[in-house]
Design brief:
117 residues; 0% strand; elongated
């Protein structure tokens, strides 16, 4: 039976932000949320606000983390749709190429580029 991985919710991110502000350890936060410590570490690393010109504002903020996560998920989802469309187009052109070779025409389907995914 496979595992089901769920993203952190906004409520969980609020708890993480409050507990980190209270200097709670990451393993303890993970235990309270029933999550793996690596999940908490990863979320803190990916969604940490660096502050830019105002380093005193740097830190982990729940709303900022949720927004960054949603943007990343939307971008990855759009990239997957584009990739799937390319694979479908490539598959269709492969069928046309096979049909062309059967008639004696030499054609080749364009290769799928992993760099674009």
């Amino acid at each position: 039976m496979g595992r089901c991985y769920l993203q952190l919710s906004f409520e969980e991110r609020i708890k993480i932000a409050k507990w980190r502000e209270a200097k709670m350890s990451i393993p303890e936060i993970a235990d309270r949320l029933s999550r793996a410590p690596s999940t908490i570490y990863r979320d803190l690393k990916r969604n940490h606000f660096d502050g830019g010109d105002l380093p005193e504002l740097a830190g982990y903020y729940a709303l900022n983390a949720q927004t960054m996560s949603e943007k990343r998920r939307a971008y990855q989802s759009a990239a997957c749709y584009k990739c799937a469309a390319r694979r479908l187009a490539s598959r269709n052109s492969s069928r046309e190429a096979r049909a062309g070779r059967a008639k004696g025409f030499l054609t080749q389907a364009p290769p799928h580029s992993r760099e674009l995914c």
